[in-house]
Amino acid sequence: MTASPRPRRKMSSAGRFWLLMGATMLIGAVTGGVYAWLEHTGGLPGPVMSALILFVMFGLLIAGTVWWWIRADEAVREAHKWAWYWGGSIGMCVGIGALMLAEAYGGDAPVPADATYSSLLIAGASLVLLPMLIGYGVAWFAWWVSKRV
Amino acid sequence: MNNRLKVLRAERDWSQADLADQLGVSRQTVNALETGRYDPSLPLAFKIARTFGLAIEDIFSE
After folding, report:
1. Which residue out of B7, B30, B38 would a mutagenesis test of the A interface target, given it has the greatest number of A Cβ atoms within 10 Å?
2. pTM, 2 dp
3. Residue A122 sits in which domain range?
């Protein structure tokens, strides 16, 4: 059988992924840098302006993710859906279990003197989000490993 | 599901990346298909068949 000509290369799936990751980090760094500069020079913008900035920032990130998702092939999508369902769900169970234990056995524990309302809120949210992210990553990796030779 | 993707690709002297480009998927996806551990959707199976100029049942079998 005669060999067909090699096709011309377009940007790879991994290339698009790292482009999105780079753009995400750049947007995060620029937003953080602008906030640091504002805080240093004349104070942070008000809550309405901050919400607007966050709205634009997350809008850009979601637009980038949509761009990437449309171009992702079915196996790449399947890996992420599987990771979201199993890794995210099991991670959420771990996080909620930790919250329940904290509520049951740590409810009377003294709050650190330097704790603020927002720091406690972030700690509680992180207790659930962190296991979800770890579970997602582990499940995503496991899905691809299971499809290899 | 079993398939002849690896043999058909080798007959054409294509790398996994070459086939991935033709199918519009990642190289990892081609690898997963060739191991038989990931079954393609019907649209992708048709695309694979078209790429090799064969019928689906000539490539995939139970």
Report:
1. B38
2. 0.80
3. 74-149
